[in-house]
Design goal:
Layout lengths: L2 E5 L4 H4 L2 H10 L3 E6 L4 H5 L4 E4 L8 H6 L1 H26 L3 E5 L3 H10 L3 E5 L11 H33 L6 H4 L7 E3 L16 E3 L23 E5 L1 H4 L5 H8 L5 E5 L12 E4 L4 H4 L5 E4 L3 H9 L4 E3 L4 H12 L3 E3 L5 H12 L3 H15 L2 H18 L1
Parallel strand pairs: 1-2, 1-4, 2-3, 4-5, 5-6, 6-7, 8-9, 8-11, 9-10, 11-12, 12-13
């Protein structure tokens, strides 16, 4: 039995795909020590992993950081500087055989360099690198970041230079610093769905989405019995506040469909037997029966929609979601919403519901996701890599 330390990013989109992998590693005899924050403790402990706390991250505003990538870059650099001394002390006591870190966890990369431990990178978004950067995307990012964002990025790089003096670690510029490439990088999507897949060699293993349907999920709605077409609307944990329920209901009622919203907040007086507004939706379950998924373009949500060959309407809020939306549109698995208004929504929904080509294209990507192997293949890749590493 080997011991692995897993450094996570404490956000649902980064943690949820790793939990089935962790559970599978434990099933195969590994001991897992998993770092996160209290919000995720119960989820982590339920896999059989040992939970460890990120003391310095407990009060971080991860929602604000998720909405502002320049701020996220700075927060990661600051957190790395603050946490490294205590994490290095703790890892000496744990003495793991190897390390897995989330792509955003710069501290995981630094700890692996400092300790010389074998290390694996967990990528829950698309893989990306400076090789795929182009002028248009760079200018778009700079426009969104603004002058304050550029200042934050310069501060983040200065912190990396300070860490180099202390620990000998190498500073990375923005794009590479947000990916933290390792000799082995596990990507939770398929190679076919990954943009610019030609840039990613054998060091990148595309395993598809890591999903388990929870038998004990609190949402017990029988979605198979609902009137079709069934349209599911969710903007994820961070962005749900941007849903204008009344406007979206008015936009979609013309399709004589069932609407299911994942939404927390006050509800309008337009509810009827074909409109469901729920604080929690069993997303993996509803997507088995949905005809269309309106989403913010978070990687996990899009993977889950495509896995179930559900066409997508995407309204992205940040650069990472822009990349996902662009890829979905490029493969004609859905449409990008330029505005979140009645006209734009009706136009996109009508286009998808009246053209079976979207579903056929989604089936192709669904097959690629399923054939990638999921968390079981990811666990085998991890264990084979470490076994080969130990034999050197």
């Amino acid at each position: 039995m080997s011991t692995v330390v897993f450094y996570s990013t404490p956000a649902y989109g980064h943690i949820n795909p790793t939990l089935p992998l962790i559970k599978e590693l434990i099933k195969k005899g590994e001991k897992v020590v998993y770092y996160s924050t209290q919000v995720f403790k119960n989820k982590i402990v339920s896999t059989g992993a040992e939970y460890r706390e990120y003391i310095h991250l407990e009060n971080c505003d991860t929602i604000a950081a998720g909405k502002n990538l320049a701020l996220l870059y700075l927060m990661i650099a600051q957190a790395t500087k603050e946490m490294l001394p205590s994490l290095l002390s703790e890892i000496q006591d744990i003495d793991p055989d190897y390390i897995i870190h989330d792509a955003l966890c710069k501290w995981g990369r630094h700890i692996a360099v400092i300790t010389g431990k074998p290390v694996i990178n967990s990528i829950t978004t698309f893989a990306f690198s400076s090789k795929t950067r182009n002028l248009q995307n760079t200018l778009k990012f700079i426009g969104k970041a603004g002058l304050r964002g550029i200042v934050k990025m310069k501060k983040a790089y200065k912190i990396q230079e300070d860490l180099q003096k202390l620990y000998g670690t190498i500073p990375l510029h923005y794009i590479d610093s947000m990916m933290n490439e390792e000799p082995l990088n596990i990507v939770f999507t398929s190679r076919e769905f990954q943009p610019h897949q030609e840039y990613y060699d054998h060091r990148y293993q595309f395993v598809g989405p890591s999903m388990e349907i929870r038998a004990d999920d609190s949402d017990v709605t029988d979605y198979s019995s609902l009137k079709r077409p069934l349209i599911y609307i969710s903007m994820g944990t961070i962005w749900s506040e941007h849903i204008n329920l009344e406007m979206m209901i008015q936009a979609l009622e013309v399709f004589h469909c069932t609407l299911v919203f994942s939404y927390k907040g006050n509800t309008p007086d337009l509810i009827n037997e074909n409109i469901f507004i729920k604080e929690h939706v069993n997303q993996l379950k509803i997507l088995q029966y949905a005809d269309l998924f309106i989403t913010h373009g978070g990687m996990n949500s899009v993977n889950e929609g495509l896995f179930n060959h559900v066409p997508l309407c995407i309204y992205p809020f940040q650069s990472e979601q822009d990349e996902v939306a662009n890829r979905v549109a490029e493969l004609k698995c859905g449409e990008i919403l330029k505005k979140l208004d009645e006209v734009e929504i009706r136009k996109a929904v009508r286009k998808i519901l009246h053209n079976s080509e979207y579903t056929m294209n989604c089936i192709k990507i669904s097959n690629s996701l399923k054939e990638s192997g999921g968390y079981r293949r990811a666990a085998d890749i991890v264990l084979n890599y470490i076994k080969a590493f130990e034999s050197i």
